[in-house]
Amino acid sequence: MAERVAGPEIERLIQLLARLPGLGPRSARRAALHLVRKREELLGPLAEAMRVARERIVTCETCGNIDTTQPCSVCADARRDPATLVIVETVADLWALERSGAVSGRYHVLGGVLSPLDGVGPGELNLDALPGRIAAEGVREVIIAVNATVDGQTTAHYVTDLVAPTGVKVTRLAHGVPVGGELDYLDEGTLAAALRQRTAF
Cβ–Cβ contacts within 10 Å for residue 90, how many? Predict the structure, then answer.
């Protein structure tokens, strides 16, 4: 049996870090050692930032984004086009679209995708408020920006059916060849989607 080489406090730090996405036990040990070695410049400020985040970060009641204000800074931005509503799976997807600088509208974060095998139905997602929000905010176009997975596409169809009675235009992100991509390196599904969704040149 391997002996424990660190005290319970360090072991606890390693165990907590190992729960983070992308960090396994080995990476968590390396991260913990680095934090402990740089405790003045990293560990203290990180602990303080986490305390502040725990106290101040809230989920936006309007869109589902996370921020320190209610409503969030995206919803409160008067420069955004209220007629366009982008539906995303997670806050990470919202942030990715914001980094692109291509969205001038507002967002609605579902909090996941429909996945019957995982017990995720419509009641577990942020769907109930969607039709009312579309009507109240004068939305004219809903852009469905979910991942191109089976569960993502199932969710996209469900959202489309849910908002159909409102009469708004429903569009979705194009799927296919990425900018800078080479055909030889793409999978068959991506190539097939690109051919189906080809556009005039």
Answer: 16
Write out residues in the chain with pLDDT < 50, as ranges: 1-2
Vertex 159 angle, CA 153 and 165, to 5°: 140
User: CB atoms < 10 A from the CB of 185, how many?
Assistant: 8
List the CATH number of the domain containing 140.
Answer: 3.40.1360.10
Q: What pLDDT sits at residue 1?
A: 45
Full domain range(s) for residue 132: 66-172
Q: Is 146 exposed, middle or buried (0-12, 13-18, 19+ CB in 10 A)?
A: buried
3: DSSP letter: P
CA distances from 124 to 84, 113, 121, 127, 144 (A): 24, 9, 6, 8, 18
Q: Are residues 137 and 166 in the same domain?
A: yes
CATH number reported for the structural domain that contains residue 52 in this entry: 1.10.8.420
Helix, strand, coil abundance in the chain, percent, nearest 5:
50, 10, 40
Predicted confidence at residue 5, as pLDDT, reads 60
Cis peptide bond N-terminal to 71, omega within 30: yes
φ/ψ of 172, rounded to 5, equals -140, 160
Number of independent structural domains in the chain: 2
